[in-house]
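Tip: read the tokens left to right.
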């Protein structure tokens, strides 16, 4: 009983330490006062000011485009990498390939951003919108690969084998049998990659260029000069988008697990 109370207390303090500052930020985004630490009443005035701030809106548009494009590319490459790791276990260099896939998970973002910067400089590539997309694709692809790989490891291959025995070509089998069954995991991987790209600061700051300032970089540059209520408003919206992405990915993963259990029960009953 004492251990359970201690665990509950520690857990409560941990969550309070993590989320109370976020809650305070969200509350003060509706503050009517220009002073971010003095409550002046409830108001949406700073959200209106935020929409008229062209610099913030341009950065938000860049961030949205980078997140969508990089998440889509990372999903395609991550899914192919997961298929390779699961289906081709005896290919030469598989151990090295898997290590390269998992490396960005444990690699500090500073090292990843700096190494990509050195790569672009050595190739004489001008940094800008597409270099940020390449950088975000590089580090988010591994997360997609892990999510899709976990689904493929529990995938019932008898469905594919039945389609192949009936004369369905391998490519058509993948798009009509395999992909629909692993689609929840693929969508969860996309949402995770989108969320990671949306709030990345370190890697983007190394690889950005003129006209490619993302929203986290814009927020960081303005916060260094002092926190304004507009920053609270845009951060609240960013928190909401990230929360929606995490919730959507969790729901997709849960549905994927429920579908897998239902398929296993149906196969056992058959």
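Filled-in amino acids:
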């Amino acid at each position: 009983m004492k251990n359970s109370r201690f665990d509950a207390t520690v857990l409560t303090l941990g969550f309070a330490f993590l989320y109370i500052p976020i809650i305070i930020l969200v509350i003060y985004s509706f503050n009517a006062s220009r002073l971010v630490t003095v409550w002046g009443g409830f108001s949406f005035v700073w959200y209106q000011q935020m929409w008229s701030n062209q610099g913030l809106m341009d950065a938000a548009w860049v961030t949205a485009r980078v997140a969508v494009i990089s998440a889509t590319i990372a999903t395609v490459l991550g899914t192919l990498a997961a298929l390779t790791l699961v289906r081709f276990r005896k290919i030469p260099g598989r151990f090295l390939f898997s290590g390269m896939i998992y490396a960005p998970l444990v690699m500090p973002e500073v090292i990843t951003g700096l190494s990509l910067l050195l790569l672009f400089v050595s190739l004489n590539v001008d940094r800008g919108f597409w270099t940020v997309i390449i950088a975000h694709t590089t580090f988010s692809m591994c997360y997609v690969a892990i999510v899709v790989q976990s689904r493929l490891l529990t995938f019932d291959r008898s469905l594919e084998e039945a389609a192949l025995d009936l004369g369905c070509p391998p490519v058509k089998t993948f798009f009509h049998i395999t992909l629909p069954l692993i689609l929840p995991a693929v969508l969860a991987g996309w949402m995770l990659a989108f969320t990671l790209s949306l709030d990345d600061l370190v890697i983007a700051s190394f690889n950005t260029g003129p006209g490619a300032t993302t929203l986290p970089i814009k927020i960081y540059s303005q916060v260094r000069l002092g926190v304004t209520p507009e920053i609270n408003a845009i951060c609240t919206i960013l928190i909401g988008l990230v929360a929606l992405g995490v919730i959507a990915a969790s729901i997709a993963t849960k549905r994927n697990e429920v579908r897998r259990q239902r398929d296993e029960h149906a196969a056992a009953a058959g």
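The two ends are 46 Å apart (CA to CA). The CA atoms of residues 82 and 149 lie 5 Å apart.
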